[in-house]
Amino acid sequence: MIKQFLWKRAKIAFGFLNTYIRKKGRKYDNTKWWDASFYTEGVSDRQTISQKKSIITAKYHYASMELQILKHLRNNGIHINQSNIMDIGSGSGHWIDFYNSIEPLKITGMDISLLSFNFLKKKYSKNDSIEIHQGKALEVIGKLNNDYDLVNAVGVMFHIVEDSEWENTINAIGNILKKRWDIYYRRSFWLHRWLKCANRQRWPH
Ligand SMILES: C[S@@+](CC[C@H](N)C(=O)[O-])C[C@H]1O[C@@H](n2cnc3c(N)ncnc32)[C@H](O)[C@@H]1O
Fold first, then answer.
1. Ligand 1 pocket residue status of 47, Cβ below 6 Å
2. From atom 13 of ligand 1, which residue's Cα is the shortest distance away?
3. Tell me, what's the pLDDT at 53?
4. What is the pLDDT of residue 189?
5. For residue 81, what is the domain's CATH number?
6. Would the pLDDT of 147 be above 70?
7. Number of domains present in the structure of the chain
8. Is 159 in the pocket of ligand 1 (CB under 6 A)?
């Protein structure tokens, strides 16, 4: 744990040094990076975390995230069967499978990566209740003419590095949600809007 803590700080310091002092490195281009540098060894649950992650670590990550979501659903009496669900940055489709097992009405998945999109298209080609799109979340949401009960985005929002794009994406999500929303935020992962928030402008804390 201490090693992990120190490693994280070192990485942040290195990033700061390269970005602001040495001014070295290339600008992150989210339309190319995922296909050119990330999914180079295929698309799978493990790969969506890192090429080097062990299967046990990947399973642990997904199991603990599922637990958090299920706990939130159960503790707040939220029923999502027969819901219209959107999953942003679907990767290998772990969250599509997760929500699909809760008998939704429809799931819309999307990913900026073409490799992921092709993988998901094939994976769900026989399932009429799952549709997959390719592109930036903000652009895809703009083209969809639907209302959703729940929007899921695990491990995605912190990859949107332009502040205005991030804000516009959050607002676009707010606009496609059927009811008022809240964001369930845990560390760098935000998961859902919930129905109960009285104030639509509430931000994650
Ligand atoms: C760390 S992976 C997480 C994948 C999946 N949500 C999961 O938890 O298994 C991040 C995913 O988000 C996608 N992504 C990154 N930026 C995106 C954007 N602006 N719009 C849509 N997808 C994006 C990447 O291609 C990648 O598949």
1. no
2. 89
3. 86
4. 40
5. 3.40.50.150
6. yes
7. 1
8. yes
Residue 143: strand pairing partners: none
Question: Residue 191 pLDDT > 50, yes or no?
Answer: no
- 200 within some domain: no
Q: pTM to 2 decimals?
A: 0.85
Note the helical H segments in the chain: 2-16, 33, 45-49, 55-75, 94-100, 114-123, 137-143, 163-176
Q: Ligand 1 test: best mutation among 46, 112, 115, most atoms within 8 Å of CB?
A: 112
Residue 115 pLDDT > 80: yes
- Of the candidates 7, 15, 30, which has an alpha carbon nearest to the alpha carbon of residue 136? 30
Does 26 reside within a domain? no
Neighbours of 32 (CB within 10 A): 12
Domain that holds residue 102: 33-193
Question: What is residue 25's predicted lDDT score, i.e. its pLDDT?
Answer: 67
Residue 141 or 171, more confident: 141
146 in a structural domain: yes
Q: From the centroid of its chain, how far is CA 78?
A: 20
For residue 156, the CA-to-ligand 1 centroid distance in Å is 5
174 Cα–ligand 1 center, Å = 19
